[in-house]
Amino acid sequence: MTLKEVMQELESYGNEQTKKTLMRHGAKEPFFGVKVQDLKKIVKKVKKDHELSLQLFDTGNSDAMYLAGLIADESKITKDQLQDWAEKAYWYYLSEYAVAAVCAESPHGLEMALKWIESNNQRIASSGWATLSGMASIRDDDELDIPIYKTLLKRVENSIHDSKNRIKYTMNGFVIAVGTYIESLSEEAKTVAENIGKVEVYMGNTACKVPLASTYIQKVVDRDKVGKKRKVARC
User: Fold this and answer.
1) 103 closest CA partner among 87, 90, 91
2) Nearest Cα to 122, choosing from 80, 92, 158?
3) Residue 154: C-alpha distances to residues 11, 56, 149, 226 (Å)
4) Measured between alpha carbons, how far is 116 from 205 in angstroms, rounded to an integer?
5) Which residues contact 109 (CB under 8 A, 6 or more apart)?
6) Cβ-count burial of 207 within 10 angstroms (0-12 exposed, 13-18 middle, 19+ buried)?
């Protein structure tokens, strides 16, 4: 499919209620308000198409940008392209999900994540923490740099409550991901989760809540699912 064809199909799936909901979360015009389940109908037709994904992301249309993340080829995306996406991802739906998931699946995941978490730009930093979580969820433990994850757990424990809004959210998610997916660090993550307690994040005019990391991890422990990896970071 061409860019024009995809944009026309996206428009046909536009939903006013979805659009209103996404705008409450941070989406801005121009976009159509396409549900993820409808985006995935297009993914089935397109499969992975890296050049098309780059074109879609450059439209500035939130629906197209999220779709770009779903069809990007993680083996072809470059560090420069990931950096460009991180800078253009103007709200968390894009920065913490679309961009972070592709980065987590790419060969550049750790390098870019460690770079991004040092950024003064809240969106870029939160994308870095989300990338680290995504990597933990899909990569075997022997493919992860466990000492780095251990060090970052301590960093979160010491700094989360003084961090910017979305960074707090993704740091909390990082603790959950480590406790859930990295068996050798699960106990340490539980301790950190208990120490940080409830994390206050302003969620705007939405019904979203911040999960209590200690409770979340314990539920996974109780189900004997610690260390069970996902196939992909994208969803």
Assistant:
1) 87
2) 92
3) 45, 38, 9, 20
4) 28
5) 103, 131, 134, 135
6) exposed
In three-state form (DSSP H/G/I as H, E/B as E, the rest C), the secondary structure along 200-223 is CCCCCCCCCCCCCHHHHHHHHHHC
With cut-offs at 50, 70 and 90, classify the pLDDT of residue 49: very high
Amino acid at 84: D
Phi-psi category of residue 34: left, alpha or beta, with phi > 0 → left and psi -120 to 50 → alpha? beta
Rg, Å, the chain Cα set: 18
What does the alpha-carbon distance between residue 141 and residue 78 come to, in Å, rounded to a whole number?
24
Residue 175: what residue type?
Answer: V
* Burial category of 143 from C-beta neighbours within 10 Å (exposed 0-12, middle 13-18, buried 19 and up): exposed
Burial 34-44 (b: 16+ CB within 10 A, else e): bbeebbeebee
Contact 171, 129 (CB under 8 A): yes
pLDDT at 166: 97
pTM (predicted TM-score): 0.97
Residue 2, judged by CB atoms within 10 A of its CB (0-12, 13-18, 19+), counts as exposed
Model confidence over 156-181: pLDDT tens digits?
A: 999 999 999 999 999 999 999 999 99
Instruction: Give the pLDDT confidence of 197-225 residue by residue, as tens digits.
Output: 999 999 988 889 999 999 999 999 999 99
Spatial distance between the Cα atoms of 222 and 225, rounded to a whole number of angstroms? 8
Residue type, 147: P
